[in-house]
Each structure stands twice: as C-alpha cells, then as structure tokens.
Design brief:
InterPro entries: GH (IPR017853), Glyco_hydro_17 (IPR000490), Glyco_hydro_17_plant (IPR044965), X8 (IPR012946). This protein has helices at 2-27, 44-53, 66-72, 88-93, 95-107, 136-152, 185-197, 208-214, 242-256, 281-296, 382-391, 407-422, 459-483, and strands at 30-33, 58-60, 78-83, 116-122, 160-162, 165-166, 170-171, 179-180, 202-205, 232-234, 237-239, 264-269, 300-301, 304-305, 311-314, 369-372, 436-439. By secondary structure, it is an alpha/beta fold.
C-alpha cells in the first residue's frame, strides 16, 4: 500500500512537472514583430518596458539596429534579428563578409548579460513572387557562409539561421495538395535540408487579411476563428478557417519533400486596424484573439493534430507610420499598440497577464493641435495637403479609413495636424499660408483620432542612421572582399 501511495505521489509529481513545463512552453509561444519604421518613435527602452509589462519574451526585429539591440541587453528575451534582402548578395559572396557581419551583429551582443539572439532571419520573404527572383540565388550561399561564421564564433549550436517565407512560396487548390511553386522546387529542397540539418524551424508568414483584401470572392467569415458557412472539405478533413488551411498547405508541401515533422514558426500574422474597409478595431480584435486562443488550445490542425505552430510572432507590436503604402494604406496600421504604446483594443495574449497594458511614462508634446481656420477660403489648400501628407501619415483619410467620413474641413485639419505634430509642434509648421491655426480643443471625432506627438526622436533621423549603418557595412564588406 505504501509503495502504491508512493507511486501515486511520484506520478502526480511527474504530472505536475510535465504540466508546468508544457505551460511554460505554451506561455512563451507568443511573440511580436517590433518594427521601427515610425514617424513618432518611442525610445527602445520604453518599448522594452512595454514588452516586459505584457510578459512578451519573444521578439523579432527586421535588422540588427544597435540602438534596439542595446535596449534588449540583459532582458533575457528570445530575439530573432533580421538581415535585409539587400544585404544577401554581399553575404553570399564570401565567408569574410559573413564573418564580419556575425562579429558586428551577433558576437558583440552574445555575451554575459547581453542579448539572447536565438535566430538570425536571412532575408525577409526573399522568394516573394513580386521580387521576380531578384534575391533567390543569394539565399543558400548566404546561409552556408553565415553558418560557417557562426561555427567559427562557437555560436552555431545556439543561434539558428532561418529564412522567413511568404505563404506564396507554396500553392494548392486544397491543403492536402500543397506544393512549393515549381520554380522554387530545387531551392526549397536545399533550404529545407539545410534547416533540418541544423535544427532550425521553417518560418512562414500567413495573412488571412491579405486573402480577404485581395479577393472580393473570399468569404469573410473564413478569415476568422468563430465558425464559418464556407468550410473547406478536403477528403476526411474539414477546414473552418483560412489560417489552418494555409498552414496545412505548407505541411503538405513539406510532407512531399520528406520533412513532414519539421517544426514551423509563424514569423508574421496579424490584422490591421485602419486603412481599408475590412481593417478596423473590431475585426482586428476578433482575428487576433481568436488566433491566440486557437493556437494556445493545442488542437493543432487536421494534418498536425495536437501539434500547433512552435511559435507565432504577431505582426505587429506598434504602428509604423513611415512604412511604404504600396501594398495598401493598411500597411501603417498593423500594431496591437498605437505608435505611442497605447493598446488599441482589449487583447489577452495568453501569457498570464490579463489584457494588454499600455506603455508607461510616455512623454507627449503639449495638448495642442493644428486645424484649418473656419473663416478662410480653403480653395487653395490642395497643394498644402499634398505637401503635408507626403511627409506625415494621412492614410486614415482614405476610403475605408477611420477618418474618411469627417468632411472636407476635417480632412484638411487632419492633414495639417499630422504635419504639425511631425514637426514637433513648431508654430510655423501650422501656418500653411495663413490657412491653419493652433487650438487646445481636441478635434478628434468618434474613432478618428487627431494625434499629439511624443517627445522622442522621430524616425526620419533613426531610419536615416540605420540606412547609413547598413550602407557603411555594405561598403566595408565590399572593401573587405576587394582587398581579400
């Protein structure tokens, strides 16, 4: 009887330990993409505090910005740093180039009390069909060189190389028929073999929003996780949401190559809150909360039951008002937080911290706005709006945007204010040939928010510094290669 009781106690203890470990794995499975292409940029230390406050310990960044990496020192966060596609050619040319890059951007930070660089993303969606193969030939050579460089630095056993792929790398009419695009078959075979040999996951970016945005026939309810009248039947499997269908298309493609058990990380997934008809706070909350609960339920997908993605990185942490809007006006509105670190909607990340917590101690400019004067003839204002919106972000004014319905004078005032805040409320920046005036009355209307800037550096200088850093590094790499 004593033996039996001891066995039960032992079994319970083991079960508790296993449950605890599994809980830890689940809790650490949600990360965020931290993009920095902003017009009003929070200081990296404020962003790190925001991450801490929300128990977010997995972070993906798109370059190796020294300012950002400096703020991540000593946090213990699991970090994925990125190499821009434009640098792949240089890094594929020789191990001298990759040695230099690893030394500057990985070894420097992988010290005691440094940055926990778990992954290096080699390029960002380099196989995207719209690139027409521009970066394709550089990926595998760059991977090989960087792997050698990590090995020389005694980091290859810990820091893993990955290649974030867009979901357009594979295709099928049904998930079970998934296969990589024919022109990518050879390079994908090489890539997946490399990832498998080095213990790296396959990283993919999945965006049901873009499927809905780009296809008027796409059933809207299939993009979410709340049930659908448009389920997809694939043999014995039934798909009730686009995310699972897309994910299993990749699983099927990997199966065909003999790597059906390869771990998969979702490098980017999210829903924008503005800039398009289907981009709004309600839809973003429904999608993101539904996704988190779905993944953390551990149900997996029909082709991988009980085996959800290894990690998911929400896209994104903050809005980025200086991003290109070539894909659409929504590009500047992916954040679960606005540019100033304020939560846009109630969201539980499943990390044991309840709903999102706002950034603390954000230093705002005074509560002043620039608006159009009522008494003036505004007929000559078009050129002023064009200039203001070429520098500031006015995407919410366009069709589908949260400020689209505020009227002509409201549109003018919004453009004026956006420029005024970007210029740190310089009084001259609200002149507009006498058409603008400064007010202390908040002109925001409903969901249309007239922003007040923050005192931190704006991204024009930060982005410029980063571009200079990359340019310097490329020049240095080129000189190094030439000398060698």
């Amino acid at each position: 009887m004593a033996k039996s009781k001891a066995a039960v106690v032992t079994a319970v203890a083991v079960a508790v330990v296993v449950w605890s470990l599994s809980a830890i794995v689940v809790e650490s499975g949600i990360g965020v993409n931290w993009g920095t292409i902003s017009l009003h940029k929070l200081s990296p230390s404020t962003v790190v505090d925001l991450l801490r406050g929300n128990r977010i310990h997995k972070v993906k960044i798109f370059d190796a910005d020294p300012e950002v990496l400096g703020a991540l020192m000593g946090t213990g966060f699991e970090v994925m740093i990125g190499i821009p596609n434009e640098m792949l050619a240089a890094l594929s040319s020789s191990t001298d180039a990759s040695d230099l890059w690893v030394r500057h951007n990985v070894s420097t930070y992988m010290v005691k009390g440094g940055v926990n660089i778990r992954y290096v993303a080699v390029g960002n969606e380099p196989f995207l069909s719209s690139y027409s193969g521009q970066f394709q030939s550089y990926v595998i050579p760059a991977l090989m060189n960087l792997q050698q460089s990590l090995a020389k630095a005694n980091l290859a056993g810990f820091t893993k190389l990955v290649v974030p792929c867009n979901a357009d790398a594979y295709e099928a009419s049904l998930p079970s028929q998934g296969a990589f695009r024919p022109e990518l078959a050879q390079i994908m075979t090489q890539l997946v073999s490399f990832l498998n040999s080095n213990g790296s996951p396959f990283v993919v970016n999945i965006y049901p929003f873009l499927s809905l945005y780009g296809n008027s026939d796409f059933p809207q309810d299939y993009a979410f996780f709340e049930g659908t009248n448009h389920a997809v039947t694939d043999g014995a499997n039934v798909y009730y949401n686009a995310f699972d269908g897309n994910y299993d298309t990749l699983v099927a493609a990997l199966n065909k190559m003999g790597y059906g058990q390869m771990p998969i990380v979702i490098g980017e997934v999210g829903w924008p809150t503005d800039g398009a008809v289907s981009a709004n706070l309600t839809a973003a909350r429904a999608f993101t909360q539904g996704l988190i609960y779905h993944v953390l339920s551990n149900k997996g997908t029909p082709l991988r039951p009980g085996n959800p993605p290894m990690d998911i990185y929400l896209f994104s942490l903050l809005d980025e008002g200086a991003k290109s809007i070539l894909p659409g006006n929504f590009e500047r509105h992916w954040g679960i937080f606005s540019f100033d670190g304020q939560a846009k909607y109630p969201l539980n990340l499943g990390l044991g911290n309840g709903l999102l917590k706002n950034a603390k101690d954000v230093q705002y400019l005074p509560s002043r706005w620039c608006v159009a004067k009522s008494s003036n003839d505004l007929s000559g204002v078009v050129n002023h709006i064009r200039i203001a919106c070429s520098a500031a972000d006015c995407t919410t004014l366009n069709y589908g945007g949260s400020c689209n319905g505020i009227g002509t004078k409201g549109n003018i005032s919004y453009a004026f204010n956006s420029y005024y805040q970007l210029q740190k409320q310089d009084s001259q920046s609200c002149d507009f040939d006498g058409l603008g005036m400064i007010t202390s009355l908040d002109p925001s209307v409903g969901d249309c928010r007239f922003l007040v800037g923050i005192t931190g550096s704006n991204s024009s200088s930060s982005t410029l510094c980063r571009r200079w850093f990359i340019a310097w590094l490329l020049i240095l790499l080129g000189v190094w290669i030439f000398v060698m």
